[in-house]
Amino acid sequence: MTHLTSQAGLHSLLKTVTCSLLVLIGASALQVAYAQNVAHPNLTVTQADIEAIRTQLSEVPGAQAALTSLRKKIDAVIALPMDVPVPQDAGGGYTHEQHKRNYQAMYEAGLLFQVTQDTTYLNFVRKMLLAYADLYPTLGIHPKPKEQTPGKLFWQSLNEAMWLVYTIQAYDSVASQLSAEDRTLIETNLLRPAASYLSAGQPQTFNKIHNHGTWAAAAVGMTGYVLNDQTLVKQALYGLDMSGDAGFLQQITQLFSPDGYYAEGPYYQRFALMPFVLFAKAIDVNQPELKIFEYQDQALLKAVRTSIQLSYNKLFFGINDAIKDKGIDTIELVHGIAIAYDITSDPALLAIAQRQNNILLTGYGFRVAQGLDQGLAQPFQYQSMQLRDGQAGDQGALAIFRNGIDHGHQALVMKNTSQGLGHGHFDKLHWLYFDNGNEIVSDYGAARFLNIEAKYGGHYLPENNTWAKQTVAHNTVVVDEQSHFDGDWQVGQKSAPEVRFFAVSDDIQITSASIAQAYPGTNLTRTMAMVKSASLEHPLIVDIFKVTSKSKHQYDLPLHFQGQLISHTISATAHTSKLEPLGKNNGYQYLWARAQGPIKPGMSQVTWLNENRFYTYSVLGGDDQQMIFTQLGANDPNFNLRSESALIRRVKSAKQHTYVSVLETHGEYNGTSEYTKNARSSVVELVASSAAGVDENIDVVTVTLVSGESFSLAVAEDSSSTAEHTLELNGKTFVWTGPYSLLTNTKN
To answer: Heparinase II/III-like C-terminal domain location, by residue (predicted)?
Structure first.
């Protein structure tokens, strides 16, 4: 009997009982055509997989090493007293982490039993499953529930779904060796109630098109396959009412773009990838006729490759609610790469698996080990590309420009994507820049210390909403110190930037986008380019940001940078004895105003050092522009925010303004050998003009280098690829077709 005494607890019990009855009735009434494997394992690992591993293990040293390592790890766990605690803690607390350790240990011990047939691992999984079967019926809602969707074992049902995804695979590994009595107890007291709680018990999550819904669908569907419960499978695939309006197939359809970009951004693409590929693998085993990996033009296989492209130096681009130390070696992508390789035999995926250095003892993991031992890996090609956003690819895009592919290469990312649901930030036309293995022009990511209970229980910090999501925390224009869409993500979700053009060539990589909905009556248009120069070691980043409005406003353009400020040419007044916050709301309250001064007409420069390279930000002044030097830390009594620096270019009152800037990567500092090279910028002049076309508006930015070389980037208002443009510049006439042109040696 469930130990529930409250009215809410009784209601939960009745709902669970009712749900179980419906499942039993539905299972007998509905017929779903799928391969009914009664033998186990029949989920993400099959009997054929295990037979191949057992017979060929001696021929694959990489898999042997993985087996030895995993046995050592799990043997150490088994040597400890079994601990299945009553839930008490929020994310990061002892009981939370212990239940995570338990489901991971069960899963891995189940694999070890299948591969080795050592009953020590079978007995471990059996005892732990029975312990959970004793515990689960006694649980009500978690004592420290997360606001939206509480769990029982965990503070939120998301973690409960993750637990079941692992646990049902563990059960699948040992089920055929358990007595009928044990199976009945585990299925009746644990697996069915857990699946029922995650589905009928929380329809608002189960039917949601969101990563929480994906985890729940995967957990319930995988449980359905193992228990041979057709109703659970169909609910997972097609939604709770099995209509097809929700469920796993709709999640694939709606959450991925035609280019494999996930709506919530790279961090959550990595997180959601695991339930997507694991459930898809289970579907492929049990219902191969669904051809799930071909669904939506191979959306899941595209998503795996796109996840890799969304990284620099192994780490994912830290946009939206991102924890910035997550990268391509996370367990989610380990499974994703291995499953994708098993399907495609793409040798470039082996190169990523080699960097991950984590062989799985599954059928798909074993085939990765075989490929690596046979030397089949080929380099993965990181590319400059535009990844469209939205189900139809019409909700903006993420532009990625790369120069080289090694550790020291450059990457420019321009974020012209949709809002990204509730995890999205208010940062339309935002950008990041990476060089020399580091993030140079940065995104704060999420304000959160994940699973560190001592820091706000591991939750997103309050500052995630009040700082990290706000527009001023990003490298894009802020109007009147208000965030885009007035800080309402549901409003922001309705509008995405319009990509005006995107192009890549040997000399220039360029994109342009605009949005008119971020601020009523104000249009934002940004063009960014990575331009190569024969006299420079690294390309220049050219940025043209046009703001036009029907009335006068204050415009701020922040640049968040990583490194130590070295020099600047701004006549700035530093506040050395008293600091004050830059503003009161929308993120401004967290910024100390360290110094400020006018940006005079002509070019001004700021240089900083990151590790052993210099970066100079050259900007055009005028229009009563101010440069504000800021640092995070104001109004932060709990020291929740990192101490990071930013430059803010402010125009106090204007209807329209065009921000023009160039970022240069240059020089070398060697502290060991005590030398410095090229610490000064090679950009000696920056000039911009508008309305320079013969019969139209064309923005022109001319850059002159210390070598005497010069070039002009001309960007037309008409972004058609077929439009012909004529420009008179410095007594010369230039004619071209398309939205832009890179003109060389344009000065007299």
So the answer is: 386-653
Beta-carbon contacts of residue 21 (< 8 Å; ≥ 6 apart): none
- Write out the two tokens for 54: 């057992």
- The answer to whether residues 542 and 555 touch, using CB atoms and an 8 Å cutoff, is no
Percent of all residues in the chain with a pLDDT value above 70, rounded to a whole number: 93
Query: In which element (H, E) is residue 504 found?
Result: strand 498-504
Question: 3-class SS at 110?
Answer: helix
Sequence-distant (6+) residues with CB within 8 A of 16 are: 2, 193, 196, 197, 201
Catalytic residues: 268, 423
Which of 27-31, 454-458, 573-577, 685-689 has the lowest average pLDDT?
A: 27-31
Q: What confidence tens digit (pLDDT) does each residue in 487-528 have?
A: 999 999 999 999 999 999 999 999 999 999 999 999 999 999
Residue corresponding to tokens 């601020």:
519
Quote the CA–CA distance of 374 and 642 in Å, as a whole number.
46
Contact 699, 688 (CB under 8 A): yes
Query: Peptide bond preceding 41: is omega within 30 degrees of 0, i.e. cis?
Result: yes
DSSP structural state of residue 58 = G
How far, in Å, are 20, 266, 279, 285, 336 from residue 237 at the CA level? 19, 24, 10, 15, 20
CA distances in angstroms from 569 to 64, 433, 566, 685, listed in the order given:
61, 23, 11, 14
pTM of this structure = 0.91
Exposure string of 639-667, with b = 16+ CB inside 10 Å and e = fewer, is ebbeebbbbbbbbeebebbbbbbbbbbbb
Q: Which CATH number fits domain 385-681: 3.20.20.70, 3.30.420.40, 2.70.98.70, 3.90.580.10?
A: 2.70.98.70
Nearest to 688, CA basis, from 570, 543, 556, 555: 543
348, pLDDT greater than 70: yes
CA-nearest of 539, 559, 505 to 682 is 539
Q: Residue 38: which pLDDT band, with cuts at 50, 70 and 90?
A: low
Classify 413 as helix, strand or coil: strand
- d(C-alpha 18, C-alpha 196), whole Å: 10
The answer to whether 732 and 717 have CB atoms below 8 angstroms apart is: no
Residue 17: predicted pLDDT = 39
Architecture of domain 6-46+73-255: Alpha/alpha barrel (1.50)
Q: Any bridge partners for residue 401, and if so which?
A: 412
Q: How many CB atoms lie within 10 A of CB 385?
A: 16
* CA end-to-end span of the chain: 90
| CB proximity list for 245: less than 8 A, separation 6 or greater | 207, 239
pLDDT at site 315: 96
Comparing C-alpha atoms, which of 416, 388, 694 is closest to residue 545?
A: 416
**Got the DSSP string for 327-346?**
BTTSHHHHHHHHHHHHHH--
Which of 389, 430, 381 minimizes the C-alpha distance to 409? 381
Q: Over the Cα atoms of the chain, what is R_g?
A: 28
Nearest residue to 259 via CA among 417, 402, 54: 417
